[in-house]
């Protein structure tokens, strides 16, 4: 009996040594200021600026976190948390973002907080997932820096709406070319002394001539969009008001044909800034890893909002499936581990968050 028990113990011991050891997959933790991390972050910021259709361009301020996951069958996925800052460049302004001025604290700065998943494969970076929101600096912090500085005002404030209407009318009156229509009110501040309203707003050219317009409702936006961006101050005076307005009109955006799965070109799309929807049920060979902009739920924007929140553009932008059959889903980390195999943490945590490029809100 003792011999049998000894034999069973030896058999179990042999089985333990013979069982293969499958190590858990490991993610890399890079330094937040590592050049590779920064390269992935800049690709992510470019993605934001190329897909947001309202508001202002944003620039990288700080990299908060980074994890790099292996991805089957090849490549790596950078999981990033980034802090962005709003610049003074309107989103359709062709000025490269690196040449745009960051909006300063005394101007009531706006910060963006974003989560990204960026694929690196064959040395190329591709955004797989983006989720952002943005918020202005607190009124208390602004007033600490500049006690007399005006704060952001609700974009539907009656004084703001009036200032935009007066400024746009003044601009069209002075124009020798197209009649421009309002696209959006982008920013507004109520200045106490002298009593005035400062506004920034976007416009677009129509098929009407400004000097000949009698009914603006009959004017239509041009097929080849031409946008402009205006800054104006309406100052209250005894017995009246004065308006000062300057507008920068950007070059016409050409109508670009959209490629089709069969290689032919479809009819041109008027606004090239709006991405074309993916083809329905594409063949397996056409499935590639790449960003697909999905429309965020169109909840009505709050009437009292003071800025354009990135949340309304990036509530979750996910990729299509890759040809390998692996998919990335909104709100989930990449599936990098085999079933029943634990994912283990990487080596010693490296310095994060990274350096602040401008200022902290």
From TrEMBL:
SUPFAM superfamilies: Cystatin/monellin. One of its GO terms (molecular function) is cysteine-type endopeptidase inhibitor activity. The keyword Phosphoprotein applies. Transmembrane segments: none annotated. Keywords: Disulfide bond, Glycoprotein, Phosphoprotein, Repeat, Secreted, Signal. One of its GO terms (biological process) is negative regulation of bone mineralization. It is found in: Secreted. Residues 27-133, 144-255 form the Cystatin fetuin-A-type domain. It comes from the Eukaryota. Residues 255-278 are annotated as: Disordered. CDD domains: CY (cd00042). One of its GO terms (cellular component) is extracellular matrix. SMART domains: CY (SM00043). Residues 1-18 form the signal peptide. The keyword Signal applies. This is Alpha-2-HS-glycoprotein. It comes from Panthera pardus.
């Amino acid at each position: 009996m003792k011999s049998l028990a000894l034999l069973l113990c030896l058999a179990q011991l042999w089985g333990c040594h013979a069982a293969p050891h499958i190590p858990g997959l490991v993610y890399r933790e890079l330094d937040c200021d590592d050049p590779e991390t920064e390269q992935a972050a800049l690709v992510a910021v470019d993605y934001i600026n190329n897909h947001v259709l309202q508001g202002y361009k944003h620039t990288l301020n700080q990299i908060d976190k980074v994890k790099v996951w292996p991805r089957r069958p090849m490549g790596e996925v950078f999981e990033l948390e980034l802090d962005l800052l709003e610049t003074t460049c309107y989103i359709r302004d062709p000025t490269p973002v690196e040449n745009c001025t960051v909006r300063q604290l005394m101007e009531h700065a706006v910060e963006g907080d974003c989560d990204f998943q960026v694929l690196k494969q064959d040395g190329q970076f591709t955004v797989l997932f983006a989720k952002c929101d943005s918020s202005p600096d607190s009124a208390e912090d602004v007033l600490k820096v500049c006690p007399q500085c005006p704060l952001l005002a609700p974009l539907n404030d009656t004084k703001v709406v009036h200032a935009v209407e007066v400024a746009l009318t003044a601009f069209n009156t002075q124009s020798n070319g197209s009649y421009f229509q309002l696209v959006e009110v982008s920013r507004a501040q109520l200045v106490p002394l002298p009593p005035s309203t400062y506004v920034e707003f976007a416009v677009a050219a129509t098929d009407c001539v400004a000097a000949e317009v009698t009914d603006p409702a009959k004017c239509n936006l041009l097929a080849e969009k031409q946008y402009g961006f205006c800054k104006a101050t309406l100052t209250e005076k005894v017995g009246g008001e004065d308006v000062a307005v300057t507008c920068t009109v950007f070059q016409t955006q050409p109508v670009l044909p959209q490629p089709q799965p069969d290689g032919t070109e479809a009819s041109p799309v008027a606004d090239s800034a709006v991405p074309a929807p993916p083809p329905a049920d594409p063949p397996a060979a056409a499935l590639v890893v790449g960003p697909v902009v999905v429309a965020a739920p169109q909840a009505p924007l709050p009437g009292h909002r003071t800025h354009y929140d990135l949340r309304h553009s990036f509530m979750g932008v996910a990729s299509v499936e890759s040809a390998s059959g692996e998919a990335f889903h909104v709100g989930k980390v990449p599936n990098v581990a085999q079933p029943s195999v634990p994912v283990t943490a990487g080596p010693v945590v490296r310095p994060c968050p990274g350096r602040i490029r401008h200022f902290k809100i």
